[in-house]
Fold:
Amino acid sequence: MSSSQPYLHKNSDNAKHPLSALVGVPKMEMFESPASWICQAALSQGATREEFAEFLGLRKQDDPDLAFVAGSIGEFAVRCGVPRAHFEFASYMFGGLASIDPNGERFLSEYQRAARYRYCPVCLHDSKVKHFMVHWRFSAWRYCPDHDCLMVDACKHCGEYITLPTDMLKGGFGGYGIASLDYCMACGHRLSSHWKQALGEMHRLHLGFAEKTAYAYGRAVLAAIYHRRVRYINNGMYHNVGLKFLINFDELGLIPNKDSEFPSFSSANGTYAGGG
Ligand SMILES: [Zn+2]
Ligand SMILES: [Zn+2]
Structure:
């Protein structure tokens, strides 16, 4: 297929694609991101992520999460034999973001032009089907409110950033493949191995006011996208404004969208001695 075509190829070529009638594709988990699901769906078909993305009509050069939600999720659901409803959370959130940040340049994490993810080791440990969540893609989302721990920047064992989608068939040590997304694609060690040490760490880190404020703003970004409104109080006055106002907050430096702003992000994300 030509790479110059838009996200979803609506021509009849798709119907003749060797992967046209799919069975056994896993459903998208409740808060799973498209980039994460593409990994699992490709693995279920013994396909590479490129083959699977091409089957969906997604172009290699586009952001996987934004391109997925810009496509026809109804058609994806039919062709993959999975419930459309499961795509709707990701579609709603990335769609909302795209209305103010069409390429995700301001709010989404990336590394070397690939979609980058942070993760909560406790969420990853607890999930039955290991997956990466929509909000983990957002640069501003720096801690997990469910487990009071910081989001992890990179694999604790080898220091590699997590970028998705990835080829699970070829990942891990020696390229022998990884069975689930809880394993590092680079070194094959378990990403959530230190989940017990991470649980509740926010209470032990003695964070300063600036960091606590930044975390709160980071969380508010996702709440604003969810509600399609920005609500804030200034000089005792309550304001309720459009989503675009998030750009103003970012330009004022209030949203932790840049990795270098808070040193404890990196120190707290250092390797845990004896993490097991
Ligand atoms: Zn968590
Ligand atoms: Zn690793």
User: Anything to note?
Assistant: Residues 1-15, 263-276 have pLDDT under 50 and may be disordered. DSSP finds ten helices and seven strands in the chain. Strands lie at 110-111, 114-117, 143-144, 149-150, 162-164, 229-234, 237-242.
